[in-house]
Every structure is written in C-alpha cells, then in structure tokens.
Amino acid sequence: MAAGRFVVPPYFPARDRDFNLLSGALLYVYQNETTTKVNIYTDVALTVLSSNPVVANSSGQFPAIYADAGTESVPVLYSVSVTTSTGASPGNPFNFDNYRPSVDWETATLALAEAAADSAAAAAT
User: Can you tell me whether residue 73 is helix, strand or coil?
Assistant: First the structure.
C-alpha cells in the first residue's frame, strides 16, 4: 500500500467564488463515485486516522491528509468534495471524482484537471 497526499489545488486554501478564505471549510473523501466515506490519515504511514470531513482552519488551510494511492498500474481513486462550514457549495467545481492522492503538487494538479475534465464530459452526455 502506497500512501498519497490529498492536494486539491483550487481549494488549498479553501476559497469561495469571490476568493474569500473559507474558515471551517469541510473536505470530504469518499469511495470513488459514491458518498461512502473512507478512512483517511494524518500521517504518510497511514496509521493515525483523521476525521472525515477534514476541517480547514481560520485561513482556509486543510491539514495534511493521506490515503492509499495504490500503485502506478493499479491506482486507488476517490471522490473528493469541498463545502463551506455549513455544507454549501463554495463555487464550481467542488466535487471531484476519479481523484488519486499524490505525493507532489504537479501530479495532484494533473489528477485534478483530468478528474474535472472527466466530470464535465460525463455531465455533457
């Protein structure tokens, strides 16, 4: 099991449509394309459970969270959702399917772009 870090570039830090920081924003992690929450962790060894949802601090910053990323040939994918502290949409998009936690910013950005494109294509059909 390889650990990967969740980095969702549009929401690191969490901001609303007007780019205001979202104190107390919530980041949920689900089994891919479901609303079934999964275990996420605060450490790269995947030994210390984190709450799900993860709560952003007053500056909209989420703490580091990790999950099983699988392998290059068999990745583990997740659905990720970011909401305001009240559960409302902070802007578009805020739900991402087919998201793979990663170990670096470039890979995370690419994974997010691919997930957003897949979601847009599915919605257009």
Answer: coil
Q: What is the C-alpha separation between 66 and 27, in angstroms, rounded?
A: 12
What are the pLDDT digits (tens) for 43-64? 989 999 999 999 999 999 999 8
Residue with tokens 């990967």: 4
pTM of structure: 0.79
Q: Residues 81, 30: contact at Cβ < 8 Å?
A: yes
| 45 three-state secondary structure | coil
What does 18-42 look like in DSSP terms, one character per residue? T--B-TT-EEEEEETTSS-B---BS
pLDDT digits (tens, 9 = 90+) for 85-113: 999 988 877 888 998 887 555 555 665 56
Longest dimension (CA), the chain: 41
